[in-house]
Amino acid sequence: MNKLYVGNLSYTTNDAQLAEYFGQAGSVVSATVIMDKRTGRSKGFGFVEFDSAESAKKAIDMFNGKDFGGRAITVNEARPLQARD
Predict the structure, then answer these.
(1) Which residues, including other chains, have CB under 8 Å from residue 10's CB and lie 6 or more apart?
(2) pLDDT tens for residues 21-76?
(3) Residue 16: which region, alpha, beta or left (left: phi > 0; alpha: psi -120 to 50)?
């Protein structure tokens, strides 16, 4: 799995900043900050996809619990979306 969940993001973080930061770990395929459809404001989390599993693992090791935008971010393997009841 090459897609990572990134939580506890600053509400001012955008896709480009996320891609640039995680680019330190390897080649980023995509970086997306999840936005609230009604308010247009960040929900405080996003996803980063790498071109290799090695880069994704390196990103977890490098960034989980580290400061980004003034907040300690959570970085782990993205899980498939679960159906909500």
Answers:
(1) 42, 44, 68, 69, 70, 71
(2) 999 999 999 999 999 999 999 999 999 999 999 999 999 999 999 999 999 999 99
(3) alpha
